[in-house]
Amino acid sequence: MQEESTPMRLTTQRQVILEELIKVTSHPTANEVYDMVRKRLPRIGLGTVYRNLELMSESGLILKLEVGGTQKRFDAVVKPHYHVRCIHCGKVNDVDMPVQQGINESAAQSSHYKILSHHIEFTGLCYQCAKVQYQPIMN
Amino acid sequence: MQEESTPMRLTTQRQVILEELIKVTSHPTANEVYDMVRKRLPRIGLGTVYRNLELMSESGLILKLEVGGTQKRFDAVVKPHYHVRCIHCGKVNDVDMPVQQGINESAAQSSHYKILSHHIEFTGLCYQCAKVQYQPIMN
DNA sequence: TTATGTGCAAAACATTTGCAGGAGT
DNA sequence: ACTCCTGCAAATGTTTTGCACATAA
Description:
The structure is a homodimer. Chain A is built from five helices and five strands, in the order αααββββαβα. By secondary structure, chain A is of the alpha+beta class. In chain A, the strands form two sheets. The first copy, chain A, has a three-stranded mixed beta sheet. In chain A, strands 1-2 form a two-stranded antiparallel ribbon. In chain A, α2 packs across α3. Chain A is globular, with a radius of gyration of 18 Å. Chain A binds a DNA duplex through α3.
């Protein structure tokens, strides 16, 4: 975990990863980014994609989403915003509602933590899956 | 994904898993539950623990937490509540603040999803880690 | 020229699954 | 008996890592 010592080199691989990520709003997984990037850089390795997504998220260039499901997802939109995940197909979308004000302060009062940020993940059914009359397990 | 057809049998393994989970407030991972349970049932398999945690969370008996980090965590407190995770040590605690009213409706208006629920995950430093003067990467 | 980055492959984790035998009803 | 459940081990899926070579500054 290094400081601002040497800035990250802007390699071709990093540039392409960032460009491809900016193109989409689908919050792709590392493997999906790999597939997108490989069309332009066929010899790139999956390890490189993982390494660079991690580095870029550490430096605040992109966002690493730790939402539900088995894989991490990545987002080129770094402005704080919330997400909704379809419990049927696993798709993740942005929720364009205002960020909840004062919620971090409430949490600070109700815990012994120094609160830095928060994230809200909504769960539901996307338009397509809702149409299929999918019956979720209500609990 | 079956309905309420046959209720789950209350086997010794399931009973012990649930009892151990009720004992703690640490939101243990599957592997931590395995370690706790193994002290009482040395021959239980890790697969059984995973299978039963999954089944119990499907039936609403326990909560599967899909918070940040690499592993899923489990909670015997099923009443809706929020969580805070220490970015330094990874510990997860409850946040005893009221559930945000009307937030699902806001999200429904700002997305094309049928919203079912939401979860808020706060990120910060726990009391112990904050004392250690840990310098987080602010972004 | 030299620190940093890459491709490749193997390793490390986390979780799921197949199956033969075991237990509850 | 019959079904559901378990232990075990192997398989799967995701992410990380070691290392020799490549490349940007």
